[in-house]
Amino acid sequence: MTILSVIMATTTHVKADHLTELDAISISGAIDKKILPAFSASSITLEDETINDTVNVVDTPDALKYAPSLMVRKRDSADYGGATLATRIWGVSYSAKSIVNVDGMPISNQLYNDNNYGTPRWFMVSPEEIRQIEVMYGPYSAAYSGNSMGAVVDITTKTPDQFMAIVNTTGSLQTFSKFGTNDNYLSGQISTLIGDHLGSTSWRLSVNHADANTQPRAFVTGTSPETPYPYVKKDGTNGGYYLGASNLLHGVSDDANFKLKYDINPGLSVSVHTGIWSGNTDSKVQSYLPGSPNGSYCTTNAPCTTFASGVYNLSQQHYMNSIALSGKNFTNFEWEAIVSNVYYDKNLQRTAGYLNQDGSIVNNVNGKNGTLSDYNGTGWTNADWRGNYKIDSDFGKHTISFGAHYDYNRLNNSQYSVADWMNAQTGNISAVGKGVTQTSALWAQDTFYINEALRLTTGLRYEAWQTFDGYLLNSSAPGSIAQGVNQASVQYQHFSPKLSLSYDAPNDWISTVSIANAMRFPTAGELYNVVSSTTTATASGQATKYYAPDPANIRPENVWSAEWSVEKKLLNGYVKTALFTEQVDDALISQYGYPDINNPTYFYSYWQNVNRVRSYGIELSGQLRDLYFKGVDFGGSVTAVDSTIVDSNGLGSSKQSIVGNPTPGVSPLRITGVATYRPDEKWAFTLGGRYQRQFASSIDNNDVNANTYLGFSGYFVMDVKARYQIDKNWRASFGIDNLTNRDYFMYHPFPQRTFVANLRYSYN
Q1: What fold characterizes domain 4-383+395-422+432-763?
Q2: How far apart are CA 23 and CA 226, in angstroms?
């Protein structure tokens, strides 16, 4: 099993001291120096011009499309809240097992560990703002929390060194045909970026507007035989028929980001970054049932709920703010202090409760008509102080890095039952889920240059974590013990050691061995849940009951990771092999069990700790410039992983042991490849491919019919792009994503063939 990782004309390095030399490119903005230690294990760097040459970029997560061992689950062009990141080992349902930063400010969602609500706030940075992206694999730096067990994605934005102005327009057209849906979906985006550097001050303003229409994200299924589209579930059992399409979205979003940097004196500077994002998403449904000219939405004449959950409006407004102070004192000491906050000022979803037979909205059925789900007040705050001190003396050459960290994360979700879902501001409370987690940490790391060829990096991170103010309510079952539950406060402390040894061997070989321990603390979303009993597994005559698992029974994940990488630097690129392994004790995975001691026969699916998960993998990576012919570049990646549950007290849905089953969501094989031909300075032609093998979507490992709705199938998707530099200021491109029109599911139906066109004007 191997991994041939090709990173589309990017630089790849084992540490910051060893960058693969590539052709120079012109840039319009400088890079702010970050006060962070060099990463000791595998990492890669993606430059903005390379991304623009090779990827059909519509929004920021597209930039990672061909990065080795990564996969961003972007369901469509209006996926403002679902583009989660899969890493070497952990899949898209484990959003808390990676970190995404913008200029040192976390935009990772620190409240959930899933693929529904846990996506990074990608919209807080536009593609035009990106200067470079560095991806670091594994928890090998003491500067990062245990969430780095998957990867750290560090996005650096442009800081102008002269006046700059960019206007960028992108349009896309998707052709989609599935079951009874056959339509075209048009999306567009326009963005502007201006900035300047005057004396001691530099500033940048980015404004973006996007308007997207999407294919259905979901389908309505049922037992009615009136449609010609049978539904077979992922486990191979009969699911009835596809009755219609749901979650056809029209999303409109706007964001503005402003960054100001002021040099107070040669040794001290302050940076302020503020941003606002607003989104409005309308969802509609389409019926395949016969009846009215538009299809019937009910099998009876009475109002029904069959299609209703797919009719909703989601209105959002999020703020992002940070302030950073950085300085350089004496000759060898640099430091930085940064405080940041992401705040949900508005995050309100209005969902219909009933539809008429013709699909129209019904008002006030039995005193209710829909629901409101409100996340107002949710958000997270981070504070970091970090420094670097360089020592070059008779005792050796060292770079000592150290810092302190604090984060505060508040989940606040309330749901209401309302009679007028389109206009009501509040209603009868039906559910509440809220709570706080916070972490304080101290860390230190030393890179000791033993000689010209050997470097030893040692680090230690101390963390104190606690959760409090947890409260749950669910009125779905009156009298249920899940109503009005104040959850227990929990706290943990942990020391995480790090060790890495790097050897610069003769003939441009570099070998690095790294080992690290980390602790990944639970998110509020994992701690504060109301779960329902599985009716198919309860005894005859028992009704569904709701239950709130005790957060004191959920332990942090204890991670041990190791990697050995060997890289050969070539005149025109590099090749690299990385062997990696990970053991996670108390891994948090949703399983089945009997947590309610008051109702010991009730069976529930809920977050609980798997005693041990063990993974092994190998990655071969490489990139070559001017391959056989001048202007021909090639890169590609193959990542192979074997991940298994080796010890667990939890059960599958049929009350069977899950020991020996593959870890859910972990693809055993992921491949990327990118070939680019630049005949001259004006043209660039790219052919890219992405492959992922089917994986187990649940602990049951019962995916016998994976390419179906709610299933997770494998896929092979090819993309093409042509970029033309018209003159110094104008650039145009045209591309096709999913060139061969691959039809596949990853729970949702994914986009089919999509045409993407871009026109960009820049002045600098």
Answers
A1: Maltoporin; Chain A (2.40.170)
A2: 62
